[in-house]
Amino acid sequence: MIKTLAKYIKEYKKASILTPICMIMEVIFETIIPYCMGLIVTNGIEAGNMQYILIVGGIMLVLTIIAFIFGALGGIYGAEASTGFAKNLRKGLFHNIQTFSFSNIDKFSTSGLITRLTTDVTNIQNAYQMLLRMAFRAPVSMLFAMVMSFAVSWRISLIFLGAIVFLSICFAIIIKFAMKYFSQVFEKYDDLNETIQENVSAIRVVKAFVREDYESKELKIAAGNIYKMFVKAENVVVMNGPLMFFTIYATMLIISWYGAHLIVGGSLTTGELLTLFTYSLQILANLMFINFMFVMFTLSAASAKRIAEVLNEESDLKNPEEPVYDVNDGSVLFNNVSFAYNADASKYVLKNINLDIKSGETIGIIGGTGSSKSSLVNLINRLYDVSEGEILVGGINVKDYDMESLRNQVAVVLQKNVLFSGTIFDNLRWGNPDATEEQCIEACKMASAHDFVMNFPDGYNTKIEQGGTNVSGGQKQRLCIARALLKNPKIIIFDDSTSAVDTATDASIRKALKEAIPGTTKFIIAQRVSSVMEADRIIVMEEGEVNGFGTHDELLNNNLIYREVYESQTGANADFDEMKGGI
Questions:
Q1: Is residue 479 within 8 Å of 514, Cβ to Cβ?
Q2: What SS3 class is residue 550?
Q3: Domains parsed from the chain with CATH numbers
Q4: How many whole angstroms separate alpha carbon 130 and alpha carbon 299?
Q5: Which of 482, 422, 429 is nearest to 452 (CA)?
Q6: Each residue of 26-52: pLDDT tens digit?
Q7: C-alpha closest to that of 206 among 192, 191, 196
Q8: Which residues have a Cβ under 8 Å from the Cβ of 575 and sit 6 or more positions away?
Q9: 55 in helix, strand or coil?
Q10: Which among 330, 397, 434, 466 could bridge 490 via Cys, Cβ 3.0 to 4.6 Å?
Q11: Angstrom distance (rounded) from CA 20 to CA 78
Q12: The overall pTM is greater than 0.70
């Protein structure tokens, strides 16, 4: 885990080394100051030597300035190192997430990944700054103060040593009980982020169903769980303060009593006693800092583990050693393909799929909810790998392609389309960053999007809000179709992507696609028979298997499921998902 995270310090190694050096130098000069104070009292004030007071006082001033400079430099370097480390961690996490296959992403919830990128990284950032500054400063300061105090009076220094042992035992017990609560906090953060994310992304649904009160209660529960965990932990940690002050005051009383006896006996001066008082405060305060660091480091250890899990996660999908970069054509061959989302799954989602699709064909795919239509097409551009069998695109196994090259030639238009913040032009150019305005407009005309875009006051420069919330579902689908067309792919997949448009617009889009990109293989997943009946061939899916494959006329004559779906949508009132055959 530490080795994994340490790689992301990178260009901030220099700042990471200079920070503890500056802190140690600050400690050295700070530790000399109490000794000088004792000298002033003994040799200056008590002796009435004003010149001595001025000289030693001047030395103390110089020491204070030097300590301040080193302390400031330590703070600057520490901030640079910790924030830079956090920046690299977030960049590394985000980059690795981008390489994940769908199966990798399925292992982590969206809210869990958000917590890792935000709260967990912030915890690591704070802990790293604490490590560079206080983890070096406090032990060194305590050690130097102990050395100096033993040099002044070894008898009284034994009192400090006893206080250190007592507090160390108490702090260890407190940490042990507190950490079991801190380790559970981050799971509660995931739940809170999930609640917030769902509520914000579905705010229109929440308002439509007047569920604001219900969602508020859910958030209150999630936030309350975090509150309870922190309260339990803090109820234990809060004992640090009283124990610390009890020990400080007890140490002061013992030193005062014992020191007075030594002064009366002539073996200790008043200045030396003052010096020992100062060192005792330094020692006990640094011990408190060390305890606080242990609490923070233990808390951040949970964050570090969660971050390392994502950084060490390797994509299930990898490029071959010598990948193929050119996709010859849009032909697709499914050769005895079976697929399960999880290697330990008890049954396959897709079973024994055998399909031979020629380049340029339009293939309709129809089937009820849960018939694995989307799972079938997700294997073409290798979003998942097959469990058995093989898939050939352009005559070559998809596993032999460079994944980026393959996916650039297989465009996908989803049912739940996503638009990003920016102008319409910006969103369209996701399909082709170099597309000209004319190419964008032409793609929108093919997708029947040009007319409604021109009705916006700013046309193609209209700003799209996050998630495309300022356009309708049908408009969003048509813009996403245009975006996919700009890729000029060998294969294009429409995953129920015209469900939000009327049948006339649907027909217009299909006609335009047939005329404009005749050489592109088109897969059209649809619930409406009208969307696929003019396809070259149609696949009928049932429970992860191909129930029928042929033209519209062939399926009407030979496939009971397709015929009943067709009749239900052209005259009868039966529901598509309740058709005989289990669609």
A1: no
A2: strand
A3: 1-150+301-314 (1.20.1560.10), 332-572 (3.40.50.300)
A4: 13
A5: 482
A6: 888 888 888 888 788 878 887 888 888
A7: 196
A8: 568
A9: helix
A10: 330
A11: 8
A12: no
